[in-house]
Amino acid sequence: MTVEFLTTVFGWMTVLNIGFLAFTTVMLLAMQNWVTGVHARMFKMEEADVRKAYFAYLAKYKTLTLIFAVAPYLALKLA
């Protein structure tokens, strides 16, 4: 594997992960009441707890994307 190939792989991985994160965030904001109600009934949780779980999910996904996709891409671009 060459550095150029790895840079391309991490670049596309970054684009896909940030795209998925943005899509998920927009969908949760746009359909918040409906999705919250569905998941609250599905998992027998309070709606406030479901909203906290969404926030934790988005925060963890963003952190993992930064660590495992963006950081290696930037490191390879600078190398």
Automatic annotation (TrEMBL):
<dbReference type="InterPro" id="IPR049220">
    <property type="entry name" value="DUF6868"/>
</dbReference>
<feature type="transmembrane region" description="Helical">
    <location>
        <begin position="12"/>
        <end position="35"/>
    </location>
</feature>
<feature type="domain" description="DUF6868">
    <location>
        <begin position="1"/>
        <end position="78"/>
    </location>
</feature>
<keyword id="KW-1133">Transmembrane helix</keyword>
<keyword id="KW-0812">Transmembrane</keyword>
<keyword id="KW-0472">Membrane</keyword>
<dbReference type="Pfam" id="PF21742">
    <property type="entry name" value="DUF6868"/>
</dbReference>
<protein>
    <recommendedName>
        <fullName>DUF6868 domain-containing protein</fullName>
    </recommendedName>
</protein>
<feature type="transmembrane region" description="Helical">
    <location>
        <begin position="55"/>
        <end position="76"/>
    </location>
</feature>
